[in-house]
Amino acid sequence: MNQDEYFLRAAIQLAREGMTTGQGGPFGAVIVRNGEIVGQGCNRVTSTNDPTAHAEVVAIRDACQKLGTFQLEGCTLYASCEPCPMCLGAIYWARPSRIVYGAFHSDAGRAGFDDQFIYEELDKPREQRHIPMHQLLHEEADAVFTEWIAFENRIHY
Ligand SMILES: [Zn+2]
Known about the structure:
Shape: globular
Helix content: 40-55%
Strand content: 15-25%
Bound molecules: zinc ion
Number of strands: 4
Number of helices: 7
Radius of gyration: 18 Å
């Protein structure tokens, strides 16, 4: 069997199991390196009261814990559904080499998981977004970056 299909099916199965065991929405993710699963997860938003506990984020945390790293170079992330904007951001920060997904985000939208709204928000200017954003204390906040640049124990990522 095609390796990508094999691991994507594992992610789809996690989505189904997470749903039927009451952990959260029907989403699963698996992270693979060198043909081996190094992290996995299903959506746990409702069971852990954590709106960020999407399958991809849970799997990234699992893989990074197991591998003892904050970067997932050389890994492939398999997601039962196309990642939402939050997960896509988390995936870019974790830097796996590839993403393989099953359902489209429009399929999730049909099931009531509408991340299209967030995509539209990202395209809007800050002042037109649904949640108001107020900018204050620029100089004081920006000073931390100057300190970071000079910080000797800085770990680049
Ligand atoms: Zn997500």
